[in-house]
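thread: overnight batch results

M.L. [08:02]
morning all. the overnight job finished for the chain we discussed friday. pasting input first so we're all looking at the same thing
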Amino acid sequence: MHPHSVKKNCVPCHVQSSALICTSNMLHSDDERFEWKDPASEDEVVNITYVRKDGSKVPVRGKVGDNLLYLAHRYGIEMEGACEASLACTTCHVYVPEDHYDKLPPPEEKEEDLLDLAPFLKTNSRLGCQIILTKELEGMEVTLPLATRNFYVAATRNKELLRRRPCSSASLNSTFVQPV
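M.L. [08:03]
and the structure it wrote out:
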């Protein structure tokens, strides 16, 4: 078993500032999830590197067909993926270097719409859940932004703030999950 594998019905959690961030693998055992399996042969290996928010680099040995979000979960990379790749959040936001960005399929309209809401948006921003590894992506280095926004947490927090005191709608758009 891989050292970072998650047992069925376990939810790995870690604390970032005062927010508790959990990534859910409850519906998938490591036997079921494609990204938790090692490559069957060297022909399908795709080596990539995740650059964490603190600048540290984590080299990862993935394989053709791996989803970037779930691969991050396998190796303990702090990529939340709150919507579990259903295109409903931006918590798997990453920056892709230009030389690899052009090798990805263009983002669908829904991904572009979500990215418009992401904090720290750049021209090379993509959602990790929409990146599937191919041999062309060998050597890719994806960088995590300084913060991501979980719309559910933001909405819940904003409702609580509104109960305490009225505020303008502009101030509702500034709730972020901040890194340590």
